[in-house]
Each structure stands twice: as C-alpha cells, then as structure tokens.
Amino acid sequence: MTLLIISPDYASHLLPLATLGTAWRDRGERVVVATGPSTAAIVESFGFERVDLPLARGSNPGIIRAEDQPEGEDDSLRGFFDATRLGMTETLAYQAGERLTDLMWQPVETARRVLAVVESVRPDAVVVDHLAFSARLALAAGRVPYADVVLGHPTALPVAGEVYGFPPVWPSAFEPGGAQLTDLRELCDRVSASFTREWNAALAVLDPAASPSASAFAEHGDLLLLNYPAELADPARELPRHEFLGSAVRTEPLDPEVEEWLASSDEPFVYVSFGSFLSVRSDVVARVVSALQSLGLRAAIAQGSAALADLGPLPASWLVREFLPQVRLLGAAAAAVTHGGNNSVTEAMTAGVPVVVLPFSTDQFAGAAALQRTGFGVALAPNTATVPELAAALSQALDLPSETAARLDALGESLRSVPGRLRALAAVDAALASPS
Question: Where are the annotated coiled coils located (predicted)?
C-alpha cells in the first residue's frame, strides 16, 4: 500500500501530518510526502519519500521571519504582525483580506501539479492538509478520494450558520464591540463569496462537468480527520464523516542540553512558546517573562524570532533557545504559556498540562474558549494582559481544582493510550474498506 501525504511547505503543518504517516510506515507501507523544498529535511528525518510540490508562495522550515520570505509574502507577514498589535478584530479583518492570495495560490497551475503527483505516485490513500485548498481543489476535480486533516480547531471547517474567519465563540477576556463584529462578519461573508467564485472558476477549467460549490470554505474530503480531542469539541456541531484524532504527538530526537537541564533541578517549570509565527511579539513574551520572575518560577522558553534583548535579564537557571523540543518539555512541565496554536494545545492536552493561552488570530480564539470552558486553560488578551494578570493566570493554572486536574489527567491518559496516528490509520482503513 502507498500513502500520499500532501502538505504546505510549513513545519507546523508537516510535522503533525508526517507523524500520522508513521502509522503506515511502521506497518511496512510506502509513504510519500508531496511538499515544498524548505521542509525537505523534516521529510527525510521521518524516512519518507518526497516529491517536490510547492503549494504557496511562502514557506516555514521551523521559525518564520518576514525577511526570509519571497517578495510579496514578506510584506504580507509584516502587515499581519502589525495587525496583531492593534487587536483581534483588526487581525481577523487583515487575515480575511489576505485570504485570496494566501489560500489559493495559482490554483489551476497548482492543481495540475497535484494531479500529476497523484498520477505518478498512484497512491492507495491520500491524506491532505485541510488548508491546502489548491490541492483539495485538484482532488475534487480529479475525483480522487482523500482524507482531509484539519490541523486546527474544528471550526476551521464552517458548518451551518458559521462563516470562515469569524470565530463562533470568544474567550471571556475578549469583548469585541458590536459594530466591529458586524463589520468583520460582513467582510468574512464577502471573502467567502469571492473565494467560492475563484474556486468555481478554477474548478470549471479543471473539470468542466463538475457541479459548482455553494461554499468553497465548507468543502471537505471524503473523510474528515480532526487533529483535536473530542473532549474539547462542541458536541452540538454537526460534522460530516469524521474522526477526532486527539493529537499528532511526534517522537523527538534526544537533545542532550535539554536532558541535562531537566535533570539539573526537581523544581516545577513552565514551558513558554508562541509558535513559529507569533514569537515575533517579543513585547508579550517579555511580559510573560516578568510574570514568571515575579512568582519565582523556573522556565523553558522557545524564543523563536523574538530578540533575546527584548526579553530583559533572564535567570541563569532558565532554558532559553530559539527552538526547543516541545513534546519532550511539555511532558515534564507543570504548565505552559501558548498563543493557542493547534500543535501547542493538543500536545499540552496529551501531556496533561494546563495552559495559559494568549490567542492572537484565526481559530485560536475558539480554541482558547474551549480550554476556558473545560477549565484546562486560562485565556487572556495578549495586548492588554498585565504582568499581575499573567502572574494570577499562571498561579491558577498551576493550582487547578482537584476535579479539573483529574479530568485533565484522564484526558492526557486517553490521548497517550491511543495516539492520533493509530486513530488516523484505523479511520482511513475503515474508509477504504467501506467508501460509502
């Protein structure tokens, strides 16, 4: 059997997708990854074959910096970073406006390259990132069955009454104004309609006999794989044929420096990471640093693109590097501070670690609301949270009520006992055995 994984050229997307692919690899089957050149080393580290397939103008091998991006994408990233400093509605509005070039890069040309890869590889099963819209357009046009992996909050696939880019729920720390929300909803509706027209125009070129889509953002694969714990999801949302994977926690290579640091003290520590994009917000990271110091806590900080000088004096006992093995450190941490990205949240839940979440954009708001609702996290607004408020949130996360701590422990045990890669394998096998 041959599994084809189609991923954008972004480490944060490829790592969980490749982790799912290890279930097929470990069963002795062929795994081919179609992605761009920046993440070639990641594909090689998993022992998979790689086919070159750029799906967007940008890329991210691990830490993203605007100056490393091609012309056009650099300005887009700077605009996004600037918008995060203004507020949540401004950020979501900026992202909505960027969406046509962001999600459907050269759709017809890219789709044809995707179909050429499928023809060359001849896979028995195809797994594709939900946000690889041009790739999913190709598979729809080519009538190729595929499993669609949502690497985010389940609301990344809008259902009845929802529109892509407009969070259906907010954490209580955010109080968007009525006029701002109305304007954002109208903008997201316009972008959705425009995106659907572009999808249908490309689909008509690729497959003139195909029926046009009523809503391109609501299109999905034959099987939906949600890289998210069912325990955090809203049971009232009606989804198509799907499987909650829980998480796609990867095995990381041993890092001697990290192991030495972990062995150097028995004191509890907090792991801090704002991911490959949002670590650029060094002002927020610096406030988190101050809050940690005010509580006398030990910390491991993945600084990403944040300038070290912006964080102020740091204790010698802390572990601070551009990049850290997140899975390993979450497995030993007492709590975590995160922007609410899917990898950070699902990996923290797998480790049974409570979080302080500071969401900036997209589905991070819905994810933060779910963590707040279940009691597994404390959500604050990153632009306005003060050092005392951050310190109070950290104290709350570190001292969960016993009933909440027991539920979080049970969730972590469940996610570890049946990892996402095995859930994905079983779901795809079942779909192949019963395609209807």
Answer: none
